[in-house]
Amino acid sequence: MLSYAYLGYPPDVINGLSMGLGGGMIGIYLGTITQRRLPERHIKLTVAAATAAMGIYTILRVSRI
To answer: Is the pTM value of this prediction over 0.70?
Structure first.
């Protein structure tokens, strides 16, 4: 963040806080509902699958190695 400010791109603090707090509250609410209704194994597998999918996408689409 400091490097962006140094380069002349100051952060929009109000926008960042509103998106962070809003998204955080929604995530916490949905996470507690999901945790109560799904077994731990299903949650772990879902998180592992999402992480693997993001990693594969990053390797194939974003990375220019």
So the answer is: no
pLDDT tens digits, one per residue of 3-55? 777 888 888 888 888 888 888 889 889 989 988 999 999 999 999 999 999 99
Q: How far apart are CA 5 and CA 62, in angstroms?
A: 25
Q: Which structure tokens are listed for 37?
A: 């209704």
Exposure pattern of 52-65 as b/e (b: 16+ CB <10 Å)? eeeeeeeeeeeeee
Q: Quick one: residue 60, left, alpha or beta (phi over 0 = left, psi -120 to 50 = alpha)?
A: alpha
